[in-house]
Amino acid sequence: MAAHFALLIDPAAPDDLRDDFAATFTALDPSAPALSVSELSTQRGDGIFESIGVVDGHPQEVAAHLERLAHSAALCDLPAPHLGQWRQAVERAAAACGAGESVIKLILSRGVEHGPAPTAWATAARAADNTGVRERGIRVVLLDRGIDSGAADRAPWLLLGAKTLSYAVNMAAIREAHRRGADDAVFVSSDGILLEAPTASLILQLGERFVTPAVGSGILHGTTQISVFEHVAAQGHPTAYEIVPAEKLRTVDAAWLVSSVRLAAPITAVDGVGIPTDRELTASLNRYLLSPRD
Ligand code: PLP
Predict the structure, then answer these.
(1) Global model pTM greater than 0.95
(2) Which domains can be identified in the chain, with CATH numbers?
């Protein structure tokens, strides 16, 4: 949905000692043009972003999102973000969100071509209504990502663990899933290992255990997955990051795609074949994910 709030951020150096970064923020008209046509974010997708869920004005897991923004910046050789400054930008954006669910986006771009500095901005918008998907669930297809699970280590320039603005491939995978009669995709490495979805992390329930694909294989470390693991661990369930063969997804007790805005969407079928779901557990995970989390 269209943004109802936008803030241009003049990025501060990481060692800036100010307590108040108001002077570095410029409120923008979210419906008016704001970026230079020479922006490398639009020309090359050269930049990074975060999407933060907001519930009734409370931005969820801000520290984890800012940590990942810093991690993505390091992988992309972008200047380290000043986390205090970005936190204040998030607070401003959250103050512009009313009741219900919203999404704050943080964007740090390489800037304009030959320009002196990166461009940074934050937006806030109403979130799409995901209630149906959380209850009804989603059918997924397994899609080959075309790279093996060792590629992240061997070829760091692929930026596999960074949340970059280059999501064209991820969007193409979702379109392919739709062509195959499913709602979403789960990427599999060329050596047959489960990875992640184009916009979500994968969590499997195997008996009492909750398992997610190991982050080292070139996937994003999801803030929602971390939160779900803390929640189920507090209830006594063992949790683990593992290398999981693709076939395992067909023999789970339950599985979910989890992300900051859609939250926990139960997987109902893999490549057209049904898998078990747990309605009660899914509802309790989403209740937890909708409660204020820091
Ligand atoms: N993996 C990918 C590729 C994503 O794009 C996302 C979120 O957009 C996630 C995982 C889940 O991350 P988070 O839970 O922090 O939203």
Answers:
(1) yes
(2) 3-126 (3.30.470.10), 131-289 (3.20.10.10)
